[in-house]
Write a structure and sequence with these properties.
Helix content: over 70%
Structural class: mainly alpha
Radius of gyration: 16 Å
Shape: elongated
Order of helices and strands: HHHHHHHHH
Number of helices: 9
Distance between the termini: 31 Å
């Protein structure tokens, strides 16, 4: 159910309320998985919808009013406070954190679930997420 709501919000990105809701969803995920990713997300393909959600956000086109070059400090500050950049920023933090913690299987703890998840993550998600970050 959450997946369909999130997809509706992503498709309705001109609506500022939808963008604020996406920001809240991302913040809740970030805080809930800040120290260690939930064991549920480490099992099977449970992380797939979240990674696709984060990749979609990272790949979203920048609105034209935030994309033009400017030297005006007030305009730069206004753009920095834009909900669009806040969503991209928290999403970047989430994916970077997971990538750093689990992206290299040789550096993770020697727990079976963690090693298995790290191997799966590095094979399935590391390249697509890296492409989105670039």
């Amino acid at each position: 159910m959450l997946g369909s709501l999130v997809n509706d919000m992503i498709n309705n990105k001109e609506n500022s309320d939808a963008l604020y809701m996406l920001h809240l969803v991302c913040k809740v995920f970030y805080v809930g998985n800040q120290l260690q990713i939930s064991p549920y997300l480490m099992e099977g393909d449970n992380l797939d919808p979240w990674v696709m959600f984060f990749k979609t956000i990272l790949d979203m086109e920048c609105p034209p009013d935030l994309n033009t070059p400017t030297d005006d400090q007030n305009e730069i500050q206004r753009r920095d406070k834009s909900i669009f950049w806040k969503i991209k920023g928290i999403t970047g933090k989430i994916t970077y954190r997971i990538f750093v913690k689990y992206g290299n299987p040789s550096l993770v703890e020697d727990k079976v679930l963690t090693k298995t998840f790290s191997n799966s993550f590095s094979l399935k998600y590391s390249i697509p997420l890296l492409e989105s970050h670039l």
